[in-house]
Amino acid sequence: MLSNNEEKMKSLIIENLYKSYGSTEVLKGINISLEAGEFLVLVGPSGCGKSTLLSAIVGLDDVTIGSIKLGDKDITNEAPKDRELTMVFQSYALYPNMTVYQNIEFGLKISKYSKEEIQNRINNAAEMLQITELLKRKPAQLSGGQRQRVAIARSISREPTMYLFDEPLSNLDAELRVKMRTEIKKLHKKVKKTMVYVTHDQIEAMTLADKIAIMNKGIIQQFDTPENVYADPCNLFTAGFIGSPSMNFINVEIQSKSEKLFINLKNVDGEDNIIFLEGEYKDLVKYIGKTVTAGLRPEHIQNGFRDESVKHELKDVNATVNFSELTGADGYLFLDLNNTEVVSRVSPSGMKNDGEKVTLKVWAKQILFFDKDTHDRIK
Is CATH 3.40.50.10740 the right assignment for the domain spanning 5-238? Predict the structure, then answer.
C-alpha cells in the first residue's frame, strides 16, 4: 500500500469560478465543495466546459475570476508542478521508446527521489494495477487497457494529494470500458484520495461518483449524489441527461377533480388514460388548467411491479405498441401517449408484437413535472 494516504486526503473547494477566452465565456460561476477522499465526476455533453474546468484545477488553464482551494491551500495561481496533483489523460501519453518501468520512472527521477524510493513506488503502483509482468514491455506491445493501466500507475506512483482523470476510458471498447471502470472504483477505495473524473458517459458518472456535477453551457446544472440526481433532478436538462433510456417527456394539462390533481395520457386511438397523481406536489396546484412537461422514466411504465407496497400508486394505461426491442434482461415497448413517443421498460415475458394492444402500469408517484418555459422542476 502507498504511504500516508489518510494524511494526504484533502478537500476541493471551487468558488465563483469563471473562465473566458477573449469575449467567449466558457465557465460561468462554478461552485463545488468536495469532501476529502470523495470521487467527483464532471459529466455533460461535448463543449459544456468540463475539460476546461479540469484544466483549471490542474493549472493548465488560468482562471479569469474565482478561486480553487485544495485543503487549506489556495492553488488558484500555483504552477501545475506545485499543486500536488496528477492527471490521467485520454490519450495515455506514454513515451513509445521507453519501457513501462521507464515510463513510470521518468517523472519520479525528475522529482529527484532516491533510486530505492523510485523502485518501491513503481513496484507498489504496478502491483496495485496488476501490471508487474508488463514492466519490461514497451507501449506498442500493450493493449489499450494495459496502456491505460500504465498511465494510471504512473499517476499513482507520484502519491499525489488528488487525482484527475480526463475521459480516460473513451478510447477503449465497450467491454473493456466496463472492466476498467470497475478497476478505477477499486483503486479509489484503495488509495482513499480525492478524485475528479471527466466523462460524457452518464453510466460512468452514475457508477463511479460519490458526487456528480452535471454541466451544460459552462454552468453546473446540478451538484449532488448519483441517487439524488437520478431520482430528484432539478430541471429538464438534468432529468433527460441522466438515465438510459432517457426519461420520457410528455406535455400534459394539470386538471383537478374533487381536490385531486390528475392528468390524461391519451393513446393513439384517442382513448383517455386518466392518471390521478399520488405524489406530494406543493406548487403543482398553481398550474391547474395549464400545460406542463411530465417526466416519467421507462422503468416506471411497466407490465407489473413486484413491490406490493406501491400497488395503490399504479395506474393502468392502455396503448398500442409501435415497435419493440429485446435487449436480453430488459424489453422496451415504444408507444404513443399524447402524440409523443414513449418508451416502456418491461420484463422479457411482457414483450408484445408491433401493433398489439397493451395495458401497462404507470407508477403515478414517480411522475415528475417541469415548467414548459423555464424548464425548472415543479415540486
Answer: no
